[in-house]
Amino acid sequence: MNTRTETAFTHIDADLYAKAFQLLDPAPEPADPAAPAVPAPVSLILAAPPVRVTGAVEQTLTDALAFLDDHGWAKGRLIHPEGARCSIGALRAAAGARNDAYRDAGNLLLDEARQQHGKGWESIPVWNDSHSGAQVRGVWEAAIQRAHHMNI
What pTM, to 2 d.p., does this model score? Predict the structure, then answer.
Protein backbone atom coordinates (compact mmCIF):
# COMPACT_ATOMS: atom_id res chain seq x y z
CA MET A 1 0.00 0.00 0.00
CA ASN A 2 1.36 3.35 -1.02
CA THR A 3 0.16 6.58 0.52
CA ARG A 4 1.14 9.72 -1.21
CA THR A 5 1.40 12.96 0.74
CA GLU A 6 1.00 16.22 -1.09
CA THR A 7 3.87 18.54 -0.14
CA ALA A 8 3.21 21.39 -2.50
CA PHE A 9 1.20 24.22 -1.01
CA THR A 10 -0.64 26.94 -2.79
CA HIS A 11 1.18 30.24 -2.40
CA ILE A 12 -0.59 32.74 -0.14
CA ASP A 13 0.13 36.42 -0.42
CA ALA A 14 2.23 37.46 2.65
CA ASP A 15 0.69 40.94 2.63
CA LEU A 16 -2.74 39.38 2.95
CA TYR A 17 -1.60 37.57 6.13
CA ALA A 18 -0.12 40.78 7.53
CA LYS A 19 -3.36 42.67 6.93
CA ALA A 20 -5.44 39.89 8.48
CA PHE A 21 -3.26 39.78 11.61
CA GLN A 22 -3.36 43.54 11.95
CA LEU A 23 -7.16 43.40 11.90
CA LEU A 24 -7.11 40.71 14.58
CA ASP A 25 -4.40 42.33 16.71
CA PRO A 26 -4.08 46.04 15.90
CA ALA A 27 -1.14 48.05 17.15
CA PRO A 28 -1.85 49.74 20.47
CA GLU A 29 -2.95 53.33 20.30
CA PRO A 30 -1.26 55.98 22.45
CA ALA A 31 -2.66 56.04 25.98
CA ASP A 32 -5.18 58.74 26.77
CA PRO A 33 -4.65 60.01 30.35
CA ALA A 34 -8.41 60.41 30.78
CA ALA A 35 -9.13 56.88 29.56
CA PRO A 36 -9.84 54.14 32.13
CA ALA A 37 -6.99 51.85 33.09
CA VAL A 38 -6.42 48.72 31.06
CA PRO A 39 -7.38 45.60 33.00
CA ALA A 40 -4.62 43.22 34.04
CA PRO A 41 -3.91 40.33 31.70
CA VAL A 42 -5.58 37.06 32.61
CA SER A 43 -2.18 35.46 33.27
CA LEU A 44 -1.51 37.99 36.05
CA ILE A 45 -4.93 37.50 37.55
CA LEU A 46 -4.51 33.72 37.58
CA ALA A 47 -0.99 34.01 39.03
CA ALA A 48 -2.14 36.07 42.02
CA PRO A 49 -2.35 34.07 45.24
CA PRO A 50 -5.83 33.47 46.59
CA VAL A 51 -6.99 35.85 49.28
CA ARG A 52 -7.74 34.07 52.53
CA VAL A 53 -10.68 35.36 54.51
CA THR A 54 -10.39 34.99 58.26
CA GLY A 55 -13.23 32.86 59.60
CA ALA A 56 -15.61 34.11 62.29
CA VAL A 57 -14.28 31.70 64.93
CA GLU A 58 -10.65 32.61 64.29
CA GLN A 59 -11.55 36.32 64.34
CA THR A 60 -13.48 35.99 67.60
CA LEU A 61 -10.62 34.12 69.27
CA THR A 62 -8.06 36.62 67.97
CA ASP A 63 -10.14 39.60 69.10
CA ALA A 64 -10.70 38.03 72.53
CA LEU A 65 -6.97 37.41 73.03
CA ALA A 66 -6.27 41.00 71.95
CA PHE A 67 -8.86 42.12 74.53
CA LEU A 68 -6.99 40.17 77.22
CA ASP A 69 -3.71 41.73 76.10
CA ASP A 70 -5.20 45.24 76.24
CA HIS A 71 -7.31 44.96 79.40
CA GLY A 72 -5.70 42.16 81.36
CA TRP A 73 -6.57 38.61 82.34
CA ALA A 74 -8.53 37.78 85.47
CA LYS A 75 -9.15 34.73 87.63
CA GLY A 76 -12.13 34.08 89.84
CA ARG A 77 -14.48 36.62 88.28
CA LEU A 78 -15.93 37.45 84.90
CA ILE A 79 -14.90 41.12 85.01
CA HIS A 80 -12.38 42.65 87.38
CA PRO A 81 -13.21 46.20 88.61
CA GLU A 82 -10.20 47.53 86.68
CA GLY A 83 -11.42 45.98 83.39
CA ALA A 84 -9.54 42.69 83.23
CA ARG A 85 -11.62 39.66 82.25
CA CYS A 86 -11.47 35.93 82.46
CA SER A 87 -11.40 33.89 79.25
CA ILE A 88 -15.18 33.63 78.94
CA GLY A 89 -15.53 37.36 79.59
CA ALA A 90 -13.04 38.12 76.84
CA LEU A 91 -14.97 35.86 74.45
CA ARG A 92 -18.19 37.69 75.27
CA ALA A 93 -16.53 41.06 74.72
CA ALA A 94 -15.05 39.97 71.38
CA ALA A 95 -18.21 38.34 70.01
CA GLY A 96 -20.53 41.12 71.14
CA ALA A 97 -23.36 38.63 71.56
CA ARG A 98 -23.88 34.96 72.25
CA ASN A 99 -23.91 34.11 68.57
CA ASP A 100 -22.59 31.15 66.55
CA ALA A 101 -19.03 32.52 66.47
CA TYR A 102 -19.07 32.96 70.27
CA ARG A 103 -20.33 29.42 70.85
CA ASP A 104 -17.99 27.79 68.32
CA ALA A 105 -14.97 29.77 69.58
CA GLY A 106 -15.78 28.72 73.15
CA ASN A 107 -16.13 25.08 72.16
CA LEU A 108 -12.81 25.16 70.30
CA LEU A 109 -11.08 26.91 73.22
CA LEU A 110 -12.42 24.37 75.72
CA ASP A 111 -11.46 21.48 73.44
CA GLU A 112 -7.92 22.84 73.18
CA ALA A 113 -7.79 23.28 76.97
CA ARG A 114 -8.82 19.65 77.39
CA GLN A 115 -6.15 18.50 74.93
CA GLN A 116 -3.44 20.40 76.78
CA HIS A 117 -4.62 20.07 80.40
CA GLY A 118 -6.71 16.91 80.56
CA LYS A 119 -10.25 15.92 79.71
CA GLY A 120 -11.75 16.79 83.11
CA TRP A 121 -12.57 20.45 82.44
CA GLU A 122 -16.32 21.00 82.20
CA SER A 123 -16.29 24.71 81.44
CA ILE A 124 -14.01 27.53 80.38
CA PRO A 125 -14.34 29.46 83.69
CA VAL A 126 -13.31 26.44 85.79
CA TRP A 127 -10.35 25.73 83.52
CA ASN A 128 -9.39 29.45 83.39
CA ASP A 129 -9.37 29.77 87.18
CA SER A 130 -7.25 26.64 87.64
CA HIS A 131 -4.29 27.64 85.46
CA SER A 132 -1.59 30.29 85.21
CA GLY A 133 -1.71 33.16 82.76
CA ALA A 134 1.00 31.55 80.61
CA GLN A 135 -0.93 28.27 80.44
CA VAL A 136 -4.15 30.05 79.53
CA ARG A 137 -2.40 32.12 76.85
CA GLY A 138 -0.86 28.97 75.36
CA VAL A 139 -4.30 27.43 74.97
CA TRP A 140 -5.64 30.63 73.38
CA GLU A 141 -2.80 30.70 70.85
CA ALA A 142 -3.22 27.03 69.99
CA ALA A 143 -6.99 27.48 69.55
CA ILE A 144 -6.41 30.40 67.19
CA GLN A 145 -3.99 28.28 65.15
CA ARG A 146 -6.51 25.43 64.97
CA ALA A 147 -9.25 27.80 63.83
CA HIS A 148 -6.87 29.18 61.20
CA HIS A 149 -5.98 25.71 59.88
CA MET A 150 -9.62 24.64 59.95
CA ASN A 151 -10.50 27.86 58.09
CA ILE A 152 -13.33 28.65 60.47
Answer: 0.67
Exposure string over 82-108, b if 16+ CB within 10 A, otherwise e: eebbbbbbbbbbbbeeeeebbebbbeb
| Alpha-carbon span 85 to 91, nearest angstrom | 9
Residue 147 has a CB neighbour count (10 Å cut-off) of 24
pLDDT per residue over 52-101, tens digit each?
788 999 999 999 999 999 999 999 999 999 999 999 999 999 999 889 99
Angle between the 56-71 and 87-95 helix axes, to the nearest 10 degrees?
Answer: 120
